[in-house]
Amino acid sequence: MGLEDLKKQAEEGLEKVADAAKEKAEEAKDKLTELAGEAKDKAKEAAHAAQDKAEEAKDKATEVVGEAKDKLGK
């Protein structure tokens, strides 16, 4: 096996490593994209839930104020 053969094998090996690294990077990118989408969905759900709770608290506060006004008026 000559020097040229060794050089060719080394280049082929590097190409295989580079291709494998690109494939793994693409898989990681896809997984991160998926996880980011799930996190975004969960954040939206949490924001909606917080908004609902805030509305409930507002309604309850309005009710309590109304009752207090009624009691003070009597």
Descriptors:
74 residues, mainly alpha, 1 helix, 96% helix, 0% strand
Summarize the structure.
Helices cover 96% and strands 0% of the residues. It is mainly alpha-helical and 74 residues long.
Distance between the termini: 107 Å
Helical fraction equals over 70%
Any idea what the radius of gyration is? 32 Å
Main sheet?
A: none
**β content, as a range?**
under 5%
Task: Write down the overall mean pLDDT.
Answer: 95
Task: Find the count of extended strands (DSSP E, 2+ residues).
Answer: 0
Structural class: mainly alpha
Number of helices: 1
Could you characterize the architecture of this molecule?
The protein has 74 residues and is mainly alpha-helical. It is built from one helix and no strands. The longest helix is centred in the middle third of the chain and has 71 residues, at 3-73. The radius of gyration is 32 Å and the shape is rod-shaped.
Q: What's the SSE blueprint?
A:
Layout: H1 3-73
